[in-house]
Amino acid sequence: MGGNSICELYEIDYNVLLEAVRGVKKILLTAPDGLKKLYDCIREYFLSKKLFVELYFSSSPSYGSCYISMGELELIKPDIIVHIGHNEYPLISTNIGKKILYIPAFYKRAPQLEELEEMYQTILRKNFKRIGLIASIQHIKILGKIGEFLESRGIRTYIGKSAYNQMFPGQVLGCEYSALISIIDKIDAVLTVSGGRFHALGAYLVSRKPIIIYDPYSGKVIDFTKDAVKIYAKRLYLVEHVRNNNYRRVGLIVGVSPGQYRDRLVKYLYRLSKEKGFEPYLIVSDYVNEDRLASIDNAFNLDFYVVTSCPRIPIDDIASFYKPVLTPGEYLMILNNIRQYAFPW
Ligand code: SF4
Fold first, then answer.
1. Structural domain count, the chain
2. Domain hosting residue 328, numbered range
3. Are residue 59 and residue 150 in the same domain, yes or no?
4. DSSP string of 259-316?
5. Is 307 in the pocket of ligand 1 (CB under 6 A)?
6. What averages of pLDDT result for each successive group of 10 residues across the chain (345 residues)?
7. What is the pTM of this model?
8. Which ligand 1 atom is the nearest neighbour of the CA of 89?
9. 288 close to ligand 1 (CB < 6 Angstrom)
């Protein structure tokens, strides 16, 4: 679109978008921070089509399609919400009574031959024979090409099927790895195709298999296993710390965005906490960070916290908080007296 080169880097289905917004007057656009730069591509596209609608661009920190700001919805009252970058969040349980269009944005750059070779050499050095391929949605379209290359070099590859129809084969989210779980018994290691380490870390916590990352943005191939093992060990330590100190007063953080409001999970944890002699406090939070948590801790001075909204917040964002902050899966290990690590629920 237009003179904006970022628009050329991503494949967006503009036809679907055009069809969905035909006849509407007010649109609220949302996107994760890394893809907010695509807002301008949409704006330019609408102008090129002489589509003069009221466009509102959300600046909220929408990490996934799980997050929609209810405050924005209630005040702006858009006819349609367009979320750029993800498909529909499969674990959503709240109907917000609004039409939401999910428009994935696929990163177009294909892996270069030397990058494919580097993936193969990394696998070879470790003597892995059977590799599970997973990707974040932006890179899902290159999984097949990577698989073909590795197969041509004698590596057996597997792309699992997600338990949810909304998701592509091999696609994972930070909190949803059923595509990986479906092939877990067949593979020696996992090749994660995504930017950064976020999805790779989740893959390790779910599978405890060696993890290689191919980052399509940098073109780099990394053996991530050692770093993942360190984070895993920290999580286990934290669980045992809460368990062994017999901490009882727990803050259950309840998300209020539709995809992060996990009503059934919260009620289950609350009930089980009481049954097992814990003292649970329900804390509502649109967005959890160390400052928000500290403000609540100043009020109640609880022993530890469990974040039910996004299970990655305790691991990726506030792991160094001065009190233990657990995921639902980690708390359930304590409640049900389980030793084996459980992620994320
Ligand atoms: S990991 Fe967190 S931000 Fe990502 S989809 Fe899951 S709940 Fe949403």
1. 3
2. 229-335
3. no
4. GG--HHHHHHHHHHHHHTT-EEEEEEESS--HHHHHHHHHHH--SEEEE-S-TTIIII
5. no
6. 78 95 94 95 94 93 84 91 94 79 96 98 98 98 98 98 96 98 98 97 98 98 98 98 97 92 96 98 93 96 97 96 98 97 96
7. 0.95
8. 5
9. no
Ligand 1 proximity of 209 Cβ (cutoff 6 Å): no
Tell me which of 223, 251, 273 is where a domain ends.
Answer: 223
| Nearest residue by C-alpha to atom 7 in ligand 1 | 310
Q: Which of 316, 312, 255, 320 is nearest to 290 (CA)?
A: 320
Q: Which atom of ligand 1 is nearest to the CA of 86?
A: 5
Q: Can you read off the two tokens belonging to residue 32?
A: 């994760």
Per the listing, tokens 């590596």 go with 155
Ligand 1 close to Cβ of residue 63 (< 6 A) = yes
CATH of the domain at 184: 3.40.50.11850
Ligand 1 atom nearest the C-alpha of 260 is: 7
Task: Look at the block and give the residue holding tokens 């400052």.
Answer: 291
